[in-house]
Amino acid sequence: MTKSSTKKKDTSPADVSPASVDHLMSLQSHLLLEEAKHPEATGQFTWILSALSLSAKYIAARCRMARLEAVLGEVGNENVQGEKQQKLDVIANDTLLRALGTRHGVAIVASEEDDKPAILHTETAGERPYVVLFDPLDGSSNLDTGSAVGTIFSVLQHDRRAKDAEGSVLQHGTQQVAAGYILYGPATVFVLTTGNGVQMFVLDPSIGSFLLVDSDVRIPDGHKSYSVNEAYSASFPEGYRNYLAWAHNNGYSARYVGTMVADVHRVLLKGGVFMYPPTDKAPSGKLRLMYEANPMAMIIEQAGGKAYSGTIRTMEVEPEAIHQRTSVVLGTASEVDRVLSYLKD
Ligand code: AHM
Ligand code: MG
């Protein structure tokens, strides 16, 4: 059911758009409907999102079965960031590479797990318009305890003038043509923006389809809640500590899973603020600009919120390296403004 379902709007067959319907709408149908609005569209973009949807269903199934299929735990390797890889990190990464590798619109994919972007189809890269970046299994260290994990993705236009793959990937967040995440929790939730608001779909596993549940997600105001790993607060810059001290005295509650997808999803639906400040251990912040911060920033902004890295709008941060780290403050616009007022003091 869509948000507008309570309005009892009469829709003729000629006026079927996600914002005006009150019937079943799959992610696939939604994409086809959007594509039909752009007569110049080649279908390649829709094809990429369908690869992401297929990957999401496959990864969701593997996460559900992880204990039974004995794929919990570490591989024994570290990824390019020096983090211990979980077996499911590798499975999720391979799944996305396999699904996207067959889609003709993709020139380059870059994964948080891999050292360098993978160039697909080098021989005709110039004809392939898109670059897809992803964090295949965000929060994977939470898997062993059955907590929620996720996939985050960002889609950019392939920059044919760039001298190499990395050059094409290193674009500002403002250049993203789509971004989204999939939450693997009690339900599998696909949140998507193509720059025209935020849509949310939930997987019905009995029919294998993501179904539209909200065609225009808006981040609420007035929720007194923050999401941050407060155990590190002694090493946060003073502005964050002052904001937290203010929040403690003003009736706020804390919620923190330690999976960015789960924490940002809660903020998207309930409001409040998610933060990962610089710490002594991670002086630039821990989260990755290209795979985590930029796509989440696009979603939050498209839902009416704000996303900052220190005092700079996240999507305007200059990308210098594909695995670049950044600090993050995102959420309800008024709450992000409040945090920023402490950072500027
Ligand atoms: P990952 O992508 O390697 O799983 O790491 C990113 C995760 C985020 O999901 C989460 O916000 C953060 O790391 C939690 O870090 P910490 O345990 O330091 O609070
Ligand atoms: Mg991550």
What does this structure look like?
This protein has 345 residues and is an alpha+beta fold. The chain has two domains: 23-214, Fructose-1,6-Bisphosphatase, subunit A, domain 1 (Fructose-1,6-Bisphosphatase, Chain A, domain 1, 2-Layer Sandwich); 225-344, D-Maltodextrin-Binding Protein, domain 2, CATH 3.40.190.80. It contains eight helices and 18 strands. It has an eight-stranded mixed sheet, sandwiched between helices. It has a six-stranded mixed sheet with strand order 12-11-13-18-15-16, sandwiched between helices. Helix 5 (238-248) links the parallel strand 11 and strand 12 (253-254). The chain is globular, with a radius of gyration of 20 Å. It binds 2,5-anhydro-1,6-di-O-phosphono-D-mannitol and magnesium ion.
